[in-house]
Amino acid sequence: MLQGRPERAVKVMPEPEVLNLPLRSRRFVFSDVSVEDGQRVSSGDILAKDPNNYAVPLLAPRAGLVRLKKDENAAPAAVDASRGGGHIIIDDVANLEEHADIAKEELEHIEREMGAGGIKRYKLLVLGAWQFFYDAYTGALPDPQGTPQAIIVSTVSLEPFVARGDAQLHKRLFNFTRGLEQLQSLLEYQPMYLVMPDIKSELANRIRDHIRGYAWAKMLEIPLTYPYDDFAILARRLGLRRDKGPVWAVRTEGVLAIDRALTLTKPCTVRIISIGGTGVNSPAHIKVMPGYPIDKIRDTYVSEPAARMIDGGILTGEALGQEPVGIDTECRGITVLGELQDREFLGFARPGWDRSCYAACYLSSLRKRFRERFTTGMRGEGRPCISCNFCEEVCPAGIMPHLIHKYLYRDLIEEAEQARIDLCVECGLCSFVCPSKLDLRQEFIDAKKLIEQEKEEIRQEQERQEKLRQEEAAKRSAEEKSE
Amino acid sequence: MKILLKVFEAVRPSFEGGKLRLFKPVFEALEHALFAPSTTTVTAPHIRDPLDMKRFMSMVVISLVPCVLAAFYFFGLRMAAMILVSYAAGGAVEVVFAIVRKEDIYEGFLVTGLLFPLILPPLLPLWMVALGVAFGVFIGKELFGGTGRNVFNPALVGRCFLSLAYPKMMAASYLEPSGALAGRLLTYIDASNIDAISSATPLALANKGDFSSLPHLFLGSVSGSAGETSAIAIILGGVFLLLTRVANWRTVVSILGSFVLLGGILHYTSPQDVGPVLWHLCAGGLLFGAFFMATDPVTSPTSNAGKWLYGILIGAVTVLIRNFTGYVEGVTFAILLGNIVAPILDEIIVGVRIRRLRSEG
Ligand code: SF4
Ligand code: SF4
After folding, report:
1. Model ipTM?
2. Which of A111, A194, A273, B301 has its CA 20 to 30 A from that of A86?
3. From the first residue on, what is the mean pLDDT of each consecutive set of 10 residues in chain B (361 residues)?
4. Is A39 exposed, middle or buried (0-12, 13-18, 19+ CB in 10 A)?
């Protein structure tokens, strides 16, 4: 059994006194702040929006008094306009009756503009449910007014230590199926795939009972092997091609949020996240809201003060900074990983019955289970690639990480693109297994960003030249006329 | 342990930027040989597999233990001297290059230094051992840019150099293994204290129509290169290496498979020219080469499909060299040929895969 795996029971954290909402999360930057210092908000109010992501809102999870806080650490030069830093702090937090719905007149206005389907999507957006949607291929927020070719609903979450679907579904099955129906009502005829670990299990049967008669939902069974729950991998497996339009993907918590937003018309601010990892004494799922102070969670759960706190899972999460504030709106779990403390004496000579290793060198293997006590240790020195092919064997995307690494090492960006670096889903398995300790995942993420940037620059350059040409043509025709 | 660690901490400054900074690679190699490195992950994934290069290489060394023991048993304590000389000479080249390049000392020579004496005739003068391994590491590895970039297996380059430069010495340095129950575990046999009877290897004898008995080949009580004679010891260590997945089974299976297939066909069509397959399988360096030489990840193709082709090529070429050329032993050349072809095979496979990837979502 994996030590530090969160149990299924969901615990409720005590109400916070102060909420500390970061203005950024993995995908969003809420740079368009719509409240002022000292303003009183009630829960469900929009505090800020992300102008680059279809104005997805940051909602106030509780009522209270707003205080704005700029990021002091960031040097002003480093902060460009699009990257708003800082937090919105809500003092004096009270769990009052939720500020009800969206204003009536507004709804009517939108209904006139967009029709009944449009209003549902609008509700999803302003009530905070839309942020649970992903574009299966890019992981970005899809266009709420767009039409997908299919929707993938996944109840599986395989990365060690992040919140699992079974815990979130526990006791909420009815809400889940109702959410599925609501989700279906957004579509016309597009298929919806329901990803389950075992389509013959009791849970699956109960879901099937609930949604009996809905031919639109197809169940898909996947193995419980990380990272088969990745949306891009699922979409490829389902044969959904990228050029046929976007694929929306949503997890269990997203379906529950849809149900809340559309059936109850209430803002979705509370989330179930996990607190797990080797540095936690009683790993669990907890119910919190964005902005919930992380030190409070730490005081309750973390047994090792020196441990590293990670936002997300152990393979793809990001280390939380020195100054722990509140959890952000996209957090799915906090993993606590002990730091490396003892340097092993003659480690390579130990037979290692107690170690799990991808190659069977330690007489056990990663594919079976993680068993060992993990730390942040690198467990070896960086070395040149020896072409052992382990990375290719584990890569779920079917690309050749060692080849791309060699291309990138020689700055052959174009070749790396041809080797389909874009298919990498950033699962981190290649970095994990590499005996030369190469940081392949990070290298690929950086390279992909660079490629994106270059493409964007080329596009802008083309646009500019196109404009110049048009202007010139206009000028010339004007001159010709005047002559 | 704590004390030792303190000693390392105390002398660290003089190696890092201090007077002895030239020898930083040596210091680090020593430190990391004793204590796992203290580096931690910076970005995700926050945990790493416990397998590292040291472990990878130490697995090969462990799997060579049966062969080393067999060599001791059959050819005496001189093996110890050969291994020591090989490590010292190969290690010196490696260390010098690490210092010049200001890189770490890589673990690869731990394997090269042990493999090399095992593929030499047991009576070879020690200066030749030193020369051979230095040549192999220098020409075969360092000139290509060091570990990970070498095209040829350094041990084989060294051996190939010796057999081209000193063919007479090589051929005259074989030794008939002892028939005594205790073997030669307590004796040190040298060219000086043996009556200069050099014994022809089974393959050389077979060329004259004299086949040694199969059980002898299987146990290893025949003349031959120090570590290559005992089929059972090689298989024991080799299977362990395959189980740990340090060596890829595809390479081994395809080499032995194609060898058996082609050898079998040839034996069936002209039994007077080509010896029985099972006999050939156990004779000479084939098993040793298949399990320990050809499976070197750096010099074999990376892709699994490439490994199949590479193995098939090596097996077939070995059969052809052994039976249709003046050389009685063909594995060394076959594997070196495979090493040359490996990048080409990889290129072909990569081309195919990239074409297939192009149509992916
Ligand atoms: S992170 Fe590595 S293993 Fe995962 S998809 Fe990307 S290249 Fe493949
Ligand atoms: S796992 Fe590391 S050493 Fe092995 S082929 Fe991949 S990049 Fe190279």
Report:
1. 0.89
2. A273
3. 78 78 79 80 85 86 92 88 94 89 84 93 91 93 85 93 89 77 71 62 77 83 87 93 90 95 91 83 90 93 93 94 83 93 93 88 63
4. middle
* Residue linked to tokens 């050819």: B75
Residue B359, SS3 per DSSP: coil
CA B189 to chain centre: 24
CB B258 within 8 A of CB B312: yes
For the entire predicted model, the pTM comes to 0.88
CA dist B305 and B348 (Å) reads 10
Q: In the Cβ-directed half-sphere of B261, how many Cα atoms lie within 13 Å?
A: 13
DSSP B77: T
A9 occurs within a structural domain: no
The first and second tokens of residue B52, run together, are 């590292």
Torsion angle in degrees (nearest 10) through CA of A71, A77, A78, A82: 80
Per-residue pLDDT of B129-163, as tens digits, reads 999 999 999 998 888 888 888 899 999 999 999 99
Atom of ligand 2 nearest to the CA of B302: 5
Contact A125, A54 (CB under 8 A): yes
pLDDT in tens, B219-256: 888 888 888 889 999 999 999 999 888 899 999 999 99
Task: Please judge whether A428 and B51 are an interchain contact, meaning their C-beta atoms are less than 8 angstroms apart.
Answer: no
Nearest ligand by distance to the CA of B148: 2
Which helix (H) or strand (E) segment holds residue A444: the answer is: helix A440-482
Q: How far is A348 from chain B (nearest CA, A)?
A: 5
User: Is the model's pLDDT at A118 over the cut of 70?
Assistant: yes
Residue A402 beta carbon below 6 angstroms from any ligand 1 atom? no
Q: Domain count of chain A?
A: 2
Q: How far apart are CA A312 and CA A324, in angstroms?
A: 14
Evaluate the omega torsion of the peptide bond into residue A290 and state whether it is cis, within 30 degrees of 0: no
Span from the CA of B237 to the centroid of ligand 2 (angstroms)? 24
pLDDT digits (tens, 9 = 90+) for A193-208: 988 887 787 778 888 7
A10-12/A284-288 β-pairing: parallel
Query: Which residue ranges make up each domain of chain B?
Result: 2-34, 53-353
DSSP state of A312: S
Contact A137 B58 (CB under 8 A): no
- Does the CA dihedral A366-A367-A372-A373 come out positive or negative? positive
Residue A251 resides in a domain? yes
Given this model, what pLDDT does residue A80 score?
A: 39
Answer yes or no: is A479 within a domain: yes
Q: Which two tokens stand for residue A191?
A: 């298929």
Atom 4 in ligand 2: residue holding the nearest Cα: A388
Where is the domain boundary, A268, A297, A312?
Answer: A268
Distance from CA of B154 to the nearest CA of A (A): 14
Q: Containing domain of residue A470, as a range?
A: 385-483
A143 located within any domain: yes
Pick from A172-186, A354-368, A467-481: least confident: A354-368
Residues A59/A269, Cβ–Cβ less than 8 Å: yes
Minimum CA–CA partner of B108 in chain A? A386
Q: Give the mutation candidate from B8, B49, B357 for the A interface (greatest A CB count, under 10 A).
A: B49
User: B244: closest CA among B49, B48, B59, B62?
Assistant: B59
Q: From the CB of A387, is ligand 2 less than 6 Å away?
A: yes
Q: Is A25 in the pocket of ligand 2 (CB under 6 A)?
A: no
- Compute the distance between CA of residue B140 and CA of residue B145 in angstroms, rounded to an integer: 10
Contact, B228 vs B119, CB < 8 A? Answer: yes
Q: Which two tokens stand for residue B9?
A: 């901490």
CA distance B221 to B290: 20
Q: Looking at A221, A243, A268, which one is the last position of a domain?
A: A268
B298 CA: distance to closest CA in chain A (Å): 5
